[in-house]
Amino acid sequence: MAHAPDVVDTKQLDDEAPISKVMSVRTLVLVWAFLIAFAILNYYSATVYLDGFNTFVSLSIALVMGTVSVFFFMHLGFDRPINAFAFVASLAVAVLFITFSIADGRAYQSELYNREGKAMISTIQSRKAKTGQAPAQPAMIPGR
Fold it and tell me: Which residues constitute the domain of residue 24?
């Protein structure tokens, strides 16, 4: 029994047809099952405390899922290499921005939270409620 190929080039079927790829149902189902498995993995990875690496793990899983979706469902894997390069470069820039944002947020954690892990704003509000006085206002700057 002959097995159908995973990818069929329609150019071979009809000389007048535009160049495109038709993927077999088997390939599409396997990709769909992979994406469902990774979605379940992403869900369960969010329920486990990974000592500060939860965001990194979730973003990594999302990156793999997005790449598989684009390469198979949008046929980027069968397109010109420059398009794949543009996609990978845009992902790299997005990862760079997210990494800098997370690093910047961690740099200010000591200013935003006290030792007990409570937000400083709530501490100021609770002091105001206890004393009945508003926090001191900054001094007026001459010329403003």
Answer: 1-79
Q: DSSP letter for 9, please.
A: E
Decide: 72 and 27 in contact? Cβ < 8 Å.
yes
Report how far apart, in Å, the C-alpha atoms of 26 and of each of 12, 70, 132 are: 21, 18, 70
| Domain-ending residue, one of 79, 96, 114 | 79
Q: Which helix (DSSP H) or strand (DSSP E) does residue 138 occupy?
A: none
pLDDT tens-digit map of 3-36: 656 665 555 555 554 566 788 899 999 999 999 9
Q: Is residue 11 one of the residues assigned to a domain?
A: yes
The C-alpha atoms of residue 98 and residue 33 are separated, in whole angstroms, by 28
DSSP 53-83: -HHHHHHHHHHHHHHHIIIIIS-GGGS-HHH
With b for 16 or more beta-carbon neighbours within 10 A and e for fewer, the 26-46 pattern comes to eeeeebeeebeebeeebeebe
The pLDDT of residue 130: 61
- CA dist 117 and 107 (Å) reads 15
pLDDT digits (tens, 9 = 90+) for 31-63: 999 999 999 999 999 898 887 778 778 888 888
Question: Would the pLDDT of 125 be above 60?
Answer: no
